[in-house]
Design brief:
- With 310 residues, the protein is α/β, with parallel strands linked by helices.
- The protein has 2 domains: 4-207 and 297-305, Spore Coat Polysaccharide Biosynthesis Protein SpsA, Chain A; 227-294.
- It has 10 helices and 8 strands.
- The protein has helices at residues 18-29, 49-59, 74-84, 104-112, 130-146, 163-172, 180-186, 210-224, 231-253, 261-294, and strands at residues 4-11, 35-42, 63-68, 89-94, 117-124, 155-162, 191-197, 301-305.
- The protein has an 8-stranded mixed beta sheet, with helices on both faces.
- It is elongated and about 90 Å long.
């Protein structure tokens, strides 16, 4: 029996591009010596994505559908695809064709060479614009500075894992607030990196607003680093050192404490700003803990097509 490949595709309001994605990806998969399934996860789409997927599933039994009861987010869609996949290798990618299907044969060659994890690193993304590219680079620099785990710069949600790694993700990485591409780089195993140039979106627009990207970045930092929690210690040490310097200065010059309304106001505003920043950071960690303690489902499946329940 030959090896089997599962291609997991997150779908949210991608009606305009799904048929093109199916044609291009099927053409690439037809040229590899692996049996395969195309597993689409409908993340509560509000357009006509689901009817298009149903039509494709009726035409091709290798097209499978997992449809959520509502929108649970891209991360939930990817982990659901991994949960329902049956392949020896699972490739996760987006439906907008920014992740080139032409990379699939090269990914499979890495697994044939013995790799268990393949991270796809984006070299260019002309459609993202200067600001988004700069903020993406800044995010990876920041998370690498704060975390003990090293992340590949510009690693994307386009990645592949073996069945063994998928089982680890299914059993051990079940947080409600998650950074799946980070977990993929954190599980260990023999890993390879492939560079690719992101294609322009075939249709539609990005589903991530600036606000969502900011919240996603904050959640990622909180999930992978406890260094921000120690900011209060460093701020306290800094304030104590500043006070000691002022005390020594006062004793040596015998001029009394520094005076002036403006000086007092600036110092009070600065210290309160630091205090509220620390309180906000603690609040983010508490919010993550609260979310995990509620233990609500990561996703809820409303229906499936062409696959057995797991």
């Amino acid at each position: 029996m030959g090896k089997r490949l599962s291609v997991v595709v997150s779908v949210y309001n991608e009606e305009a591009v799904l048929e093109q994605f199916y044609r291009e990806t099927s053409r690439v998969l037809g040229g590899v010596a692996w049996d395969y399934e195309l597993l689409f996860v409908n993340d509560g789409s509000r357009d006509g994505s689901l009817p298009v997927l149903k039509r494709l599933a009726q035409q091709d039994g290798r097209v499978k559908i997992v449809s959520f009861s509502r929108n649970f987010g891209h991360e939930a869609a990817m982990i659901a695809g991994i949960d329902y996949s049956s392949g020896d290798v699972i490739i996760c990618m987006d439906a907008d064709l920014q992740h080139p299907p032409e990379c699939i044969p090269e990914i499979l060659r890495k697994f044939e060479e013995g790799c268990q994890v393949v991270s796809m690193v984006r070299t260019k993304n002309r459609s993202a614009g200067l600001i988004k590219n700069l903020t993406s680079a800044a995010f990876y620099n920041l998370i690498n500075a704060l975390s003990d785990v090293h992340f590949e710069n510009n690693a994307s949600d386009f990645f592949a894992v073996s069945r063994q790694v998928a089982e680890v993700l299914k059993k051990s990485y079940r947080e409600r607030v998650r950074f799946l591409r980070g977990y993929v780089q954190n599980v260990g195993f023999q890993r390879a990196t492939i560079e690719y140039e992101a294609r322009p979106r075939a249709a539609g627009e990005s589903k991530y607003s600036i606000r969502k990207l900011f919240q996603f970045s904050v959640n990622t930092i909180v999930c992978f680093s406890n260094l921000p929690l120690k900011l209060g210690i460093y701020a306290g040490l800094g304030a104590g050192l500043l006070g000691l310097i002022v005390l020594v200065y006062t004793l040596l010059t015998r001029q009394g404490a520094p005076s002036g309304y403006a000086t007092i106001v600036v110092l009070i505003c600065f210290m309160f700003a630091v205090l509220f920043l620390i309180v906000g950071i603690i609040g983010e960690y508490i919010a993550i803990l609260f979310t995990e303690l509620k233990d609500r489902p990561i996703y809820i499946v409303e229906r499936t097509e062409n696959l057995d329940e797991v």
